[in-house]
Task: structure prediction
Amino acid sequence: MKKVKWGVIGAGGIADRRTIPGMMLAKNAELVAVMEVNMGLAEKIRSKYNAKRAYDSEAALLADPEVEAVYIASPVNCHKEQALKAAKAKKHLLMEKPLALTSGDALEIAEACRNEGILCAAGFMMRYHAYHQKMREIIKSGKLGQIVSCRGQLSCWYPDIEGAWRQKKALGGGGALMDMGIHCIDLIQYITGLKAVKVGALTATNTFKYEVDDSSSTILQLENGAFCYVDANFNIPDAAVKGRLEIYGTKGSLLAEGTISQVEGGKLDVMLSDDSAGYDAQQDRGEVKPCEVRVDFGNMYTKEIESFSESVLSGKALDVPAEEALQAQRIVEAAYESSQTGCFVKL
Ligand SMILES: NC(=O)c1ccc[n+]([C@@H]2O[C@H](COP(=O)([O-])OP(=O)(O)OC[C@H]3O[C@@H](n4cnc5c(N)ncnc54)[C@H](O)[C@@H]3O)[C@@H](O)[C@H]2O)c1
Result:
């Protein structure tokens, strides 16, 4: 099978923890080069994954003629410059989220890629979770009826750390909402197939000393009128958060737990109950039991790399086009605006 030859910029963080291990399992991808801020780290990662070359400058990696696609997983403040250089070098791009510090910068990236005729996708790998795919399929089939309410939750424990780029707005673009809530916003829109049209939010730094939000609660209205709630915090112990994704419709609910995560797992309870027969004054909740759906779990990062590589090889439409990540980032920015002004923002 033909394989896309990959280079990785910013190989020492999530790339090393999840994405490169996922890439190693992809049938149509080959890691050929890695770039890190110093040669020692770059070489360590190269040797760990048996890649061909290590670099300590992005220009050198982008000049490597064998590299066809680049995965950018550096701190967010580096994304724009690296992406624009990659586009100029005609390398296809898979960018970690958020695409850039601001949606304006993200738009520049998307336009540069379009102008250079290269593909640009975003790293919303949770779209590939088998349960999220199942939820999307059920909603598409109409079995859930009209979508009326959704909830997404992603939080962790992230205390003050000297020098951490995520804790500075100028380096990360935002806090818990920009870093984690954005996954929930993307998932809700992707799974329901409905875009957000209005947003309101509360964000604050309630626990730690850093300048970005450690607490965020966001309300969205979707284009069909449904209301959604997204909670993303940096101040809840990891083990205390269930990573819930709940979607309610006029014919039932899809309740996922532990699926908003870097590891494909968790569970999904499906409850489908057609109440069109009439109003039940007893509100009897006992009759219909939720059905736990079984799926085969895989590796979301492998699926992400395989899907992108397939788009490079065969022209298949991208699963996560940059424009959709840009739209999610606009929602996050509007949420921060709402938090400051106390008013809802129309999108
Ligand atoms: N989709 C996911 O599962 C997921 C999870 C975590 C992080 N992320 C995203 O990945 C990106 C990186 O986050 P992280 O948690 O890996 O951060 P990190 O700080 O753990 O790792 C970033 C890596 O980039 C390197 N780096 C620093 N400056 C660089 C530069 N100028 N050029 C190239 N590399 C540079 C660092 O040495 C480090 O190894 C962010 O956009 C983040 O939002 C995505």
The radius of gyration is 21 Å. Residues 9-10, 12-14, 18, 35-37, 58, 73-76, 78, 96-97, 123, 125, 179, 262 surround nicotinamide-adenine-dinucleotide (CB under 6 Å). Residues 131-298+329-346 form a domain with the Dihydrodipicolinate Reductase; domain 2 fold (CATH 3.30.360.10).
